[in-house]
Amino acid sequence: MASLKDLKNRIASVKATQKITKAMKMVAAAKLRRAQSAAEAARPYSAKMAKVLGGLARSMDGREGAPELLAGNGRDQVHLLVVATAERGLCGGFNSSIARMARQHARRLMGEGKEVKIYTVGKKGYDALKGEFGSIIVERIDFRGVRQLSFNEAEQVGKRVLEMFADGAFDVCTLFYSEFQSVISQIPTAHQLIPASFPASEEEGEGKMDFVYDYEPGEEEILGELLPRNISVQVFRALLENAASEQGARMSAMDNATRNAGEMIDKLTLSYNRQRQAQITKELIEIISGAEAL
Amino acid sequence: MAEAFPFELVSPEKQLVSGEATEVLIPGTEGYFQVFANHAPLMSTIKPGVVEVKMADGEAARFVIFGGFADVSPAGLTLLAQHAVDVNDLDKADLERRVQEAREDLADAKDDEAKAKAADYLDQLTTLQSAF
Lengths: 294, 132
Hints:
A: alpha/beta; 6 helices; B: alpha+beta
């Protein structure tokens, strides 16, 4: 049985922890608001981009000489997994759920006899994957020093992926990140970057193009320019979604931690009081029985 | 009063303009062109330069944009800029940094095609720089 002093110390330390988690929750909430508005501000661009590219891709469909970024290079042997995670932990299952998804994907591909290469964006993803896949992590980058994510960071990643593709280092590229739904729900998502894939749902009837575009310079030149940029845009979007998800996950994790700490304090206080009372009773009995003996 | 049409200017980081415009001057890769209402559907890439916008309420705005592309459709004009800033907010140092980067890109370019591209870009940037 722990002594009164021990219990007192425990309570003090849990209280201190609770203060920290409470502060972290508040910080996460403030950061979440910023991250969310950044993600929202980026949405029109990527939505437009997807629409335009989707239209172009459909018109190129079935035609000879479609760019490799769009149609793939005809092979399906080497897969590059770009795994985007956070720089810091203490955000619940956020990092591990992305890593788990990437790991399962990698194992499945390996099971099919494919070659897998991994590019980790963010420190935590590297930490989580280096144990099993250390030898196939071909590239890693983290943005620990970056305060506010801008398009430049995404472009760095995008350019590197494009370089590797141009060098023939892989055939198919998939991006892993976490889609922000709400504070309590972030969905780990895999999105295929190369060959480009477009969400099928963007066909809204009226969005269909029933007119013919003039292209300046040419359709293929425009595609050739847009496709590489699309990679960076997708990476950027993923990074922003990730940033919002991370803060959301941290917020709910810290909320839980604060609540748990509260429960623990209650329990400890209860047993502290009980023990104190027991001690007083014991002392009283000792005094009374001492007096009776006289 | 000229007819207005919906106009949007977006960069990956944010939406800069969304509203009704009456005329927009765009630095297309193959030359400047001006868009009015009911322009024929056109998709064009953009070189670094200045976009001049006249909004429907008579206000004029100028933006410096660094590449991107324009999508003119019956639904309106959308400019997807790689990076865009209001002329008044243009940071000389930022521009210089971009020129510097373009120079490095040119030096790093491996094949002729990339070299030509980088040289073009640098050229456009320096033109832009000298305009201020």
